[in-house]
Structures are given as C-alpha cells and as structure tokens.
Amino acid sequence: MKNANAQFDPIIRMREVTVSYGSRRVLDSVSLDVQRGEILVLLGGSGSGKTTLLKQVLGLMKPNTGSIVVNGVDITSCGPSELAAVRRHIGVAFQAAALFNSMSVQENVALPLQELTKLADSTISLITWIKLWMVGLAEAAHLYPSELSGGMRKRAAIARAIALDPQILVFDEPSAGLDPIVAAGLDELIIFLNDILGITILVVTHHLESAFRIADRIAMLHQGHLIAVDEKERFAGTTHPRIRQFLDRKPDAVGSGEQGFMTAYLKEFQT
Amino acid sequence: MSFLEQIGRPFVLWAEDAGALTLQFGAALWRIPKALPILGNRRRWGATLEQVLAIGTRALPMACTMSLCIGFVLALQGAAELRRFGGVNYVVNLVAVAFIRELGALVTAIAVSGRSASAISAEVGTMVVTEEMDALRVMGLNPVDFTLAPRYLGALIAVPCLTILSTISGIFAAYVFLSLSIDMSFRIYSRAVFEAILARDVWLTLIKSVVFATIIVHVGYLEGLRVSGGPDAVGRATTTAVVKSTFLVIVADLAATWFFYMMGWSAAG
Questions:
Q1: Inter-axis angle of helices B149-181 and B186-196, to 10 degrees?
Q2: A63: left (phi over 0), alpha (psi -120 to 50) or beta
Q3: Are A169 and A200 in contact (CB under 8 A)?
Q4: Which of A61, A82, A111 should be substituted to probe chain B, the one whose Cβ sees the most B Cβ atoms within 10 Å?
Q5: Interface touch A58/B138, C-beta < 8 Å
Q6: At what angle do helices B104-112 and B42-82 cross, to 10 degrees?
Q7: How far does CA B5 lie from the centroid of its chain?
Q8: Between chains, do A90 and B130 touch, taking CB under 8 Å as contact?
Q9: Over the stretch B140-195, which tens digit does the pLDDT of each residue have?
Q10: B172 CA to chain A: closest CA distance, Å?
C-alpha cells in the first residue's frame, strides 16, 4: 500500500455483481474494491469472466444485479451525463490498442483533448507531445497506427489513455502478443505511471510474470467467481488448489470433470 | 425448432431490424447538425466531405456504366416495338421518362448499395472488432458523431449528385443509339428530352434518392454494429448489408412510386 489511508478509500467498489448471458453466469456475485493509488492485477484464465468484469467497470455493460461505484458514483444506476463525467477520469488501454486507424499517433492522442476540453490548439499539441514523450513515442508522433509495431501501438494507446490526466487507468491484457523484452518495458511503464502520476491502475491479464512484477495486490477470477484477493506476497504462497494450478501452470487432467472429453467418449461407448 | 417458431422467427427479426433502424435514424438526425459546415464542428464537416468523396468516387463509375448499358438496352428494346407503329423517335420519351422518374435513382441506389453499404458495414464492423467503438465510448465521446453522422450526411449529399449524373448517362445512351440508327441530331434530341420531362419529376426523383441514401447508410451501419467476435463476422456483415439494403431500396422504391401515383403526381403534363 502506497499510503496508510488508501485502505479506507476505494476508488472502485463492486458489490455482489452478477452477470449472465442467457442461462450462463459469467460473473457470480463478485465484490471487489480497488484502492486509490494502488496497482491491482486481475488474473484469470480464458473464459474466467475478466473481460466482462472490465466492461462492467467501464460502464460498457450493465450487470444483472449488484452495484459498481466509481469515484463515488454508482455507474449501474446513473444517467448518461454522469457516466460521461465518471469516464472523464478513466483512461483505458485496450488489448488491441484500438487506435483510430485513419489518424496519426499524434492525432489519436490529441483527440480526447480536442473533443472534451476547450484548450487552445497550441496547448493541445504541447500536452500531446508531453504524453507521447512519457511513453517514449515522441519521435513516432507522425506515424500512422498501421506503421507501428505491437509494442509501439500499446504505448500510443497508453498516451491517449493518459491524455486527460485520468485518476484510474485500465489495461486489458497489456502484454498480449508482445515479446518478453517489449512486455517487460511496458510493465516498467505501468509502474512508472503509478509512481510518478499516482494513477490508480487496474490491469487484467493472464500473464503471471508481469502480474507479480507490477501488482500491489492480485485478484483471481475463476469461472465467474472471485476466488482470491490478496497482496502479491501472500498470493504467491497460497494453497488454494485452483490458484496453485494456475501459478504452477498445471493443465486440467484429460478426462477429468463432467465435460472431460474422454469421460464423455467412454460413456457413449458403454450405453 | 417448432413449426410456429419457424413461422414467427422472421417476423421477430423484422421487427427487431425495424426498431433498431428507427432508433439509429433518430440518433443520426439528432447528431447531424454537429456535422454541418459553419454550424457544427469543423472536424466533423471535414470527415463528412471525405465521406462525400468516398461514397461518390466508389459508386460513380459503376452507376454511370450501368445506366449507359440500361439506357442503351431500353432504347434497343423500345425501338424494336415502336418501329411497328412508325414511332422510333418516341424512344426519346421512353428512355427520358423512365430514367428521370425511376431508373436513374434506382440504378444509382443499387450501385451505391453494392459499393458503400458493404464498405460502411466493413469499416464499422472492423471498428467494433478492434474495440475502437468502445474506445470512443469510454472516452465519453458519442460514436454516432464520429462514424454515423458524417457518413449519413455524406450520403445525403453524394447520392442525389450521383443520381443526376447517372440519369444523364442513361439518357445519353439513348442518344447514341438514335444517332446511330436514325441519324438524329443532338439538338433535336435534347429538345425532345426537355419536352418529355417535368420539373416535378426531377424533384420527386431527388426525394427518392434521399430515401435510398438513408436506407443504404443505416442498413450498412447497423449490420456493422452487429458484428461480434472475430474478423470473419465482418465478412458476413458486409454480405448481409448489401442484400438487405438492395432489397429495401427496391421495396421503398415501390412504396414511393405508389405514393406519388396515389397523390396524382405521376400524370404527365
């Protein structure tokens, strides 16, 4: 924890959030607090519901039941203008960067400034340059997204996400599709932004090494249930079988469980 | 699936389409003022001009070539019949009236539907897949301002212009035929054309082309928004967009023509 008060000041507070698609429960009464100023990493395998949880926090989807309070506003029940005001303080770096392909890197970063502030053009270009410099892309400002490497695209997306000086920064799979060196560089950038700017950071990933490098606390989702939230040192020493399996990279046993392929196959034969 | 479900399903899907298109149309109308020159945001107007050029240049060669061919075919077929009554020069009236009232707008709409409904659904679908739409939303920006309004306004400008050009090419094709077959001069031909057409017909056809533009852009956009999953869904969306928009354009053409007829606006002179 960066400071003693942080414990009592959650910037995101999720309570009993349940989401179902038809009869399938993607999130099952998940309660999670993100403290102001911390880096919380949300771990989970494919299909664990972590992307859904992220969309809930961003207000892109509404939960079936439960409440999500971001910066003191319940985004599950507020109107569109309040939601826009909350989003003003959230920056998002999407998995595929989601840069606008018809605009250069500089224009991408300048877009939220042009649209949501009344700053003069010269101020905007200065801020844009500073943000690009912070992520190490100052010399690539005039390139288009299609001309960038995977790591550069993610950096550009981060520059755009921090353009409006958000209080919360959300990362969806920051290291997906990157080589280890570039991914490590991105981890350092995330820590830097948290240290220097004091931004609260929520990272969704399944990449263990990067999770343990950057996290203050780690939460783990499994099949829609939040099975652990703990500081990373204690998280690493856990004995919970699912988490151990995840941490030790053990596969599900073939044929185990009711969906096991071999079991189903054998049953088919016996009848 | 039970028998009743099979019968009911298309109706439910139709109702869903109709509802979604209506909501989307309302949202676009609401946001279009922002894309207008002077009144609106200058960047949106820039994006609109880009769309005018994109929609115009994508469909222009195809619309004009199709009109040339259809005009020529219509002249050929018409001449074969009219010759029996000794009225080959009425080919002018046949082609001019057919193109001004009907074919110019329809052929253009079909060309635009093939070119731009597909392009719009592919662009929008790709933006959905790459999370660009979500990126706009979480920035607190309205995707309609950036994606739908410029395209709709662009089409409202481009499609009537294309309709005029393609009507001219269709009528010109009939002139080529007549000058080759009965050596008609351009002066006589153009006088006959101007005698055959009414200003009212021109206005009605432009209204039709605006309706077609609305259908094409909104169907293309809606199918693009419905893309979910991966890139293969984008391909399916473009096909659906073209099929649906072409179909709806022809149905709307019938409805509009029927309406004009009932209002007594179709009678000559």
A1: 130
A2: beta
A3: yes
A4: A111
A5: yes
A6: 130
A7: 34
A8: no
A9: 888 898 899 999 999 999 999 999 999 999 999 999 998 998 888 889 888 988 88
A10: 39
Among B135, B137, B147, B141, smallest CA distance to A158 is for B135
Nearest-neighbour CA in chain B from A246: distance (Å): 26
Closest-CA residue of A relative to B142 is A84
Based on its alpha-carbon atoms, the radius of gyration of chain B, rounded to whole angstroms, reads 21
pLDDT number for residue A257:
52
Judge whether A155 is closer than 8 Å to chain B, CB to CB: no
B133 to chain A, minimum CA–CA distance in Å? 8
As for the ipTM of the complex, it is: 0.82
Q: Residue type at B218?
A: H
Taking CB atoms and an 8 Å cutoff, what residues of chain B touch A84?
Answer: 140
Distance (Å, whole) CA B211 – CA B196: 25
- Distance (Å) from the alpha carbon of B140 to chain A's nearest alpha carbon: 5
Q: Residue A1: which pLDDT band, with cuts at 50, 70 and 90?
A: very low
Q: What is the pLDDT of residue B217?
A: 95
Which residue matches tokens 């859904």?
Answer: A52
The mean pLDDT of chain A is 85
Cβ(B79)–Cβ(B93) below 8 Å: no
Task: Evaluate whether B94 touches B175 at the Cβ level (below 8 Å).
Answer: no
Residues of B with CB under 8 A from a CB of A: 43, 130-132, 134-135, 137-141
Furthest C-alpha separation in chain B: 70
How large a percentage of chain B has pLDDT more than 70? 99
pLDDT digits (tens, 9 = 90+) for B197-245: 888 889 999 999 999 999 999 999 999 999 987 788 899 999 999 999 9
Query: What pLDDT does B87 receive?
Result: 82
**DSSP 8-state assignment for residue A5:** G
